[in-house]
């Protein structure tokens, strides 16, 4: 079981690293669902943290539909991520019809050549997750899909997440389950869905609140569940 933890500053990132997280999703604006962090923060995390940091590429929180100006900004940010040495990015784009925007995705993936790519929770807004997953299976550069199975909490989407895990078994894609997970709920959730990677934000913070600091004991406890 691999554990990804959201970090919003260098302290978060260092705590996640020191207490057993396998990977960081580096964002700002966590209360808005995560936006692109500053270049200074990316550079500091890359230089001072040993685990991989995947950087959110999201220019605004209005929607996951992007115009040319948005895409130009996202591409510049991806180039900066590469220059600063982070190994991966977290991105996604949808059409107004709630399907994956393949034209936008192709532009972003071209800029991200050489980086690992996670398709983020825009996936939870598509009208047909199975069709969207089939689309992403056509893009080997996308190795991970962060999803709550289309529900606010992944705990309410166990059958759907189990289906997505089955669809990706033996492919280049891994389902990264996130949203609403807790230390207490995780063992049964993993057994029922078959997920191999989980994503925690508020669930590893003080009082379970997104704007509170990371609680290192919760990360340690999560890692202990799976050895």
UniProtKB/TrEMBL annotation:
Per the record's keyword annotation, is Cytoplasm included, yes or no? Answer: yes
- SUPFAM superfamilies for the chain: CutC-like
Q: Domain of life here? A: Bacteria
Protein's UniProt keywords contain Cytoplasm: yes
Q: What keywords are annotated for this sequence in UniProt? A: Cytoplasm
Annotated localization: Cytoplasm
- State a single Pfam family of this protein: CutC
Major location, coarse class? Answer: cytoplasm
Question: Belongs to which family?
Answer: Belongs to the CutC family.
How is this protein named in the record? PF03932 family protein CutC
